[in-house]
Design brief:
About 40% of the residues lie in helices and about 20% in strands. The protein contains 11 helices and 11 strands. β10, α10 and β11 form a beta-alpha-beta unit.
């Protein structure tokens, strides 16, 4: 009991979601006292009607260290929810499911984490025999702790109006991306065929054209509704692992991991076109201007944002409702490449 209490106390001090997932699967395994052999935290991803399962963290008693599937893996290559009857049943029923495995197969227990639909987080447990009622209640209690901690992280990391990530979380996410860019590929050989989306990160800055007119002509309540609908379009236009931010006002930021410059350009252009075609209630059609730039080795959040911001400024100054690449502006001579020099630092 003392060890579990200490683990819960440590869990409550975590602010990194990956670390939280890893700590949770360890804790659930520990709470099983040998009855649980494998613990997985699964995130449902994909389109409604074609959901797949991303393993956010897994603890296997035979491996004794948490593992996960890369978050940037193409969701269509992930296991389909429909191929796992216990997961599908828990998703459909909205309740805990236990399934006795066939001869030689483990018993599966699937629990829902939180109540956020239509996309869910699942906890899947493997055991040699069905879990006892007291053990199952204990695991469900740990899931409530985990869900509450995730809600607290959401409260601190997300914009209160749109639900997108807020500006203060950007630097940490950017630095993680920079580390991943400079980390050698450590995927298993079977995964390398699908690792084509690991080639680089792009930062896009998006600004709603003439948004002040929306507030002036229709009022701030309608302006807020436009921002909410814009956030919804962003979520449905970009992939589940792209990081979407509202920086304030009508300015949004997207941190994307793409296979090539063409893929990055296509992603932001598709979004721009969707916005142009969308009919906003009472307001009608609006447009966005987007600038984007590739992240560089040893980049900083400020310098990358500045490059993308210069591209969006160019787009707004040259007709709006368009996507502009910082690298293309430099290559065409429209912008001069800024040479970053190392600054001397005085230590006191």
């Amino acid at each position: 009991m003392e060890e579990i209490v200490n683990q819960i106390a440590d869990l409550c001090g975590l602010r990194d979601r990956y670390a939280l997932d890893d700590a949770m699967v360890r804790l659930v395994y520990l709470s099983g006292k040998g009855a649980i052999t494998v613990v997985r935290v699964l995130r449902e991803v994909g389109d409604l009607g074609d959901m797949h399962c991303l393993t956010r963290a897994e603890f296997d008693a035979k491996k004794m260290s948490p593992t996960r599937v890369p978050a940037w893996k193409d969701w269509r290559e992930l296991p389909a929810l429909a191929d796992f009857p216990a997961r599908l049943q828990a998703h459909t029923q909205g309740s805990t499911v236990q399934v006795q495995g066939a001869l030689g197969a483990p018993c599966l227990t699937v629990l829902l984490v939180g109540e956020v639909r239509p996309v869910l987080t699942l906890l899947e447990l493997e055991s040699d025999k069905p879990l006892t009622e007291p053990l199952l209640r204990g695991v469900e209690g740990l899931m409530r702790v985990y869900s509450n901690l995730e809600n607290l992280l959401d409260y601190g990391e997300k914009d209160s109006l749109t639900g997108l990530l807020n500006r203060k979380t950007f630097d940490g996410a950017f630095l993680k991306a920079a580390v991943e860019m400079n980390t050698p590929n450590d995927l298993e050989p079977a995964d390398r065929r699908s690792a084509h989306t690991q080639d680089g990160y792009w930062l896009a800055v998006m600004d709603i054209d003439h948004f002040k007119r929306v507030n002036d002509d229709f009022g701030h309540l309608i302006g807020d509704e436009v921002l909410l609908l814009m956030a919804r379009l962003m979520r449905t236009s970009f992939r589940f692992y792209d990081q979407l931010y509202r920086f304030g006002g009508e300015e949004f930021v997207i941190l994307m991991r793409c296979a090539s410059p063409d893929d990055a350009a296509g992603a932001v252009e598709r979004f721009r076109a969707r916005v142009q075609e969308h009919l906003f209630p009472q307001v009608g059609h609006i447009t966005v201007s987007v600038g984007y730039a590739a992240l560089r080795d040893n980049d900083t959040p400020g310098s990358a944002f500045d490059r993308a911001d210069k591209a969006v400024y160019y787009a707004k100054a040259h007709g709006r409702n368009q996507v502009v690449s910082y690298q293309s502006l430099v290559a065409s001579g429209e912008l001069a490449e800024e040479v970053e020099t190392e600054q001397e630092i005085d230590f006191f």
